[in-house]
Specification:
- The chain contains ten helices and eight strands.
- With 222 residues, it is an alpha/beta fold.
- Strands 1-3-5-8 form a four-stranded parallel sheet, with helices on both faces. Strands 2-4-6-7 form a four-stranded mixed sheet.
- Helix 2 packs parallel to helix 3 and helix 4 packs across helix 5.
- The chain is globular.
């Protein structure tokens, strides 16, 4: 996905009705020794980092349970859409654990420190509507009879992104992700560097030409 220039947006969805991702298999985990658990969680954390580092926009479509590592997967995505009835939470403390695949870092960056601490300390599960009210998901939608309302909304969101200049979108994502971790002056410098990379693109010239000619732009990602 990282190197396929034809791909503009990635949507993560489940093939299991009523479940986005239920997290780790604790029965499997119980068979591991301490070293194996540490290795397993490190690999899982690396996977989430790889997803977060994808240069193209990513959307999690949560049509059901997103618990523990399942919510950490969604948090590694850029955007999240949930069915109002979906249940989500970092429930690790209810099992004698703590989030180990990025949850302690990505949740506070998403909803703020106070709310993140409350959700992690209590292991509470919330529904899609509650998640939307705290900014954990971008959109919460009523579930439909097919059980894929969040996926359909995620597709609609992806289709809004598709016509936009791909390289500009990638640079926008990079500027946001890098800039949020530093002071604002450094962030402005990062934005400037990303903008400078976008200036010589064919798509920028196409955008200007399309505006002058009063027609929709035809971006090619170059």
């Amino acid at each position: 996905l990282r190197f396929d220039e034809k791909i503009r947006v990635v949507v993560f969805k489940s093939e299991v009705k009523g479940v986005f991702c239920a997290g780790a298999d604790l029965k499997e985990r119980a068979q591991m020794d301490d070293a194996e658990v540490g290795h397993f969680v490190k690999r899982l954390r690396n996977l989430m980092d790889e997803i977060a580092a994808l240069p193209i926009p990513t959307i999690a479509a949560m049509d059901g349970y997103a618990l523990g590592g399942g919510l950490e997967l969604a948090l590694a995505c850029d955007l999240r859409v949930a069915a109002s009835s979906a249940k989500m939470g970092l429930i690790e403390t209810t099992r004698g654990l703590l989030p180990g695949a990025g949850g302690t870092q990505r949740l506070p960056r998403c909803v703020g420190i106070g709310l993140a601490k409350e959700l992690i300390f209590t292991g509470r599960q919330i529904d899609g509507q509650q998640a939307a009210s705290m900014g954990l998901v971008n959109h919460a939608v009523p579930q439909n009879s097919d059980g894929d309302a969040a996926y359909q909304r995620a597709l609609a969101l992806a289709k809004e992104i598709l016509p936009q200049a791909p390289f500009a979108v990638k640079m926008g994502k990079l500027a946001i992700n890098r800039g949020i971790e530093v002071d604002i002056a450094s962030g402005m410098a990062i934005e400037g560097m990303c903008y400078a990379q976008n200036i010589p693109t064919k798509d920028r010239q196409e955008g200007m030409a399309a505006f002058r000619e009063k027609r929709p732009p035809q971006f090619i990602g170059k």
